[in-house]
Amino acid sequence: MSLSTARCGLPAREILYSSISNALSSIRNSAELHKVHALVITAGLDRSAFLTGKLISKYARFREPTSSISVFDRVSPTNNVYPWNSIIRALAHNALFSEALGFYSRMRDVGVRPDAYTYPSVINACAGLGDAEMGKVVHQHVSEAGFGSDLYIGNALIDMYARLDDMGKACHVFGEMSQRDVVSWNSLISGYSSNQYWEEALWYYSELKLDGILPDLYTVSSILPACGGLVAVREGRILHGLVEKIGVDGDIIVRNGLLSMYFKFGNVTDAQKVFDEMVFRDIVSWNTLVCGYCQLRLFEDSIQLFRDMITTCTPDLLTVTSVLRACGHLGDLELGTFVHDYSERKGMEFDTRANNILLDMYAKGGNLLAARQLFNKMKDKDSVSWNSLLNGYILHGSYGEAMQLFKMMKMETEPDSITHVMLLSVSTQFADIYLGGEVHCHIVKLGFTIDLRVCNALIDMYAKCSKLEDSLRIFGLMDICDIVTWNTIISACNHHQDCCLGFQMINAMRNEGLVPDEASLLGILPICSLLAAKQQGKEIHGYIFRLGFESNVPVGNALIEMYSKCGNLKGAVGVFELMKVKDVVTWTALISAYGMYGEGQKALKAFAQMEVAGILPDHVAFIAIIFACSHSGMVEEGLNLFDCMKNKYNIEPRMEHYACTVDLLSRSGHLTKAEDFILSMPLKPDASIWGALLSACRANGNMKIAERVSKRIIELDTDMTGYNVLVSNVYASMGKWEQVRSVRKSIRSKGLKKSAGCSWMEIKKRVYIFGTGDRSFEQFEEVYQLLDILGSLMAKQGYVPDLQCVLHDVDDDEKEDMLCGHSERLAIAFGLLNTEPGSPLQIMKNLRVCADCHTVSKYISSIVQREILVRDANRFHLFKNGACSCGDRW
DNA sequence: GTAGGGTTAG
């Protein structure tokens, strides 16, 4: 149509045609579309290929594919490709993929040649159906038709292969393309990203930049999950900057992606910041936040967010399941049940995944009946369903049910690696090496030894079953390990009191480039405490500062204990004072520290301050404070607290509290009172109770009560080596060798091993260990010579050896020699020889210091004018100028 | 673009 005819008047039909065509382009809703459609029919234009094509597309946009089809049917059959393209695109757009493909084959059947506009929709339909076979066929058609290098078709093919998880082919198509735009790159990158090939996604993203292509918001939104998955913090930050630059109105999808990424980094601050700055938030934004907090195990925050959310936005299944998960972990059955009811009222359909979360919530919360009912009702159970219920039974001690369920599970489905991890945790809890070994066999058979978490659980199981060598063997076989592996092995060293190995492990871990986390620090600090490794402990404290863990409450608590057990009360108090948040464990650590140093008054003051701070003492706090009173001879105060515990705080005294109180009475010489106290106990006294009294009898030389108590302990037939040894020693000091032999025989027949007495000290970061009568160290001759000299000096000052402390049936001369070989003396002498004159000495002993060594230490401190700090199994003794800080109550 | 079960840690 020329310009002149347009101006001077068109035939009516053509005017109608062009005005309808214009109207079709500017239609905004379905009602308008229907009006125009009616107009097309009245004008008799409903067989026009161009107009019908437009109508088909418009109906598709307003989600009325059936109308699209009826429009198409008016022109069909047609040789014009335009309506065919429109109908295929319309159907694919409305997710009617098989229908779209049906029209594609009809089109070919009637001999209409598809063009470059046909294929993208057809390819899209194959991808939507997940039909790899058909996809291949269509790809073949494309090649045959010579469209192999078409940009739009290429992009569609990449997208299709990516959605079929065939990144090899996607990449191949990408490589073959002669021309690429940002969409091509985006399709490839988002393909890698959504199939979780994060390294590749990031790699192609860097290639895209090298190619000089400007990333758009689609690029960013597909690369963000990769940054999150790889914890690529630096790249993530750069992307965030890019979003600020190109995201004019803050594209919501990208912002949601940023939120998710920051949660994957564990960076709550920035996630919250992105969220706070968002102008628009949709359900996904809220869900990402609620789920994100949940995944970082910040369950309370997650629930609080949910409460905030429901005022502005209606929760969906995802929100509900996240909250249910939080309720499960917090054991909040009440809220969980409420949310469950809410979702039922809203008519939400629970899929398997959602049901599993619900099941887990009931199982963790202890409503095993509800869990079981849900489990029985579920149609599509997967291994997670079985495991969740199994875990519920295990958590709540229903081991019989757990085992029965496991049997059923084996019949209906294949137990997976996580099932085995849970079975291992049962073995670990009971230290049941037989069950553990059996599970280990299954694990090997099923090939789960490649699973990191299974190996971690195995290491832990063997460690808790006292098989450190087996733990180390498994550890040695592992090619890859994570922070949990290291932490597990460190805690294993801690359990086995193998301090050297513990330090080796933490160093090896750091050499691997792993940064210790809270659990690592909580594993290594007790090793420092145990070993009294002052220097190492201090270094770790420095490290804690650098890592930013100084405000972590459990870490702070472990630091207080470390300093106090390393002989540095000031350090312990210093850490305590710097802690901003303190819990009952923090205060208890401080009270115990004072207790160990015989600072009973300070312990009492701390106890009072704790109450003022609004923290209620728990049963451990009472053990600490009664212990402190006991070691400071504060009998009245201690008894008072014991009464208070029940009357004021409603805490029922446990065996440990009775043991502490018996210790309190008997240690300060009230042996008869202690015995009466024991006989009036509502619990049946165990060996720890009688043992406390017996130690005091021995120290006091009250052999009458000692003999009665010894009989009681023998009657109890305890497996605790220490109490058997104590009884044997008491008989030995009474010279009753017959009884000594009998007790020793019983120790042997029970297969108990006496832990050998040993002492150790740290000099210039090296730890020196001494056993009883040890002659295996280099300077032993000098050490024994020095002890001889000191012995004669002491004799002149009136020292008489306390031969009751020697526990072998030998003559008195020999006994004296044996006393000289006590490990703490060797350590003291060694320390005197190897440290600066006048400097303080610090010695650790695994057992309690005997009365004679206590006396000797006092003499030595005066003769050599040195402070000697000795930590034994119970407390610290500071020997200075011939006296001891404990006032001889040890 | 958001989702489930288990292992270390006092």
UniProtKB/TrEMBL annotation:
InterPro entries recorded for this chain?
DYW_dom, E_motif, PPR_At4g14850-like_plant, PPR_rpt, TPR-like_helical_dom_sf
Q: Which UniProt key words apply to this protein?
A: Repeat
Q: Which GO terms describe its biological process?
A: RNA modification
Q: Which residues form the DYW domain?
A: 798-890
Report each PPR repeat as a residue range. Answer: 80-114, 181-215, 282-312, 351-381, 382-412, 482-516, 583-617
Tell me if Metal-binding is a UniProt keyword of this record: no
Which top-level group of life is the source organism from? Eukaryota
GO MF annotations, alphabetized? RNA binding; zinc ion binding
Into which family does the record put it?
Answer: Belongs to the PPR family. PCMP-H subfamily.
What protein name applies here?
A: Pentatricopeptide repeat-containing protein At3g03580
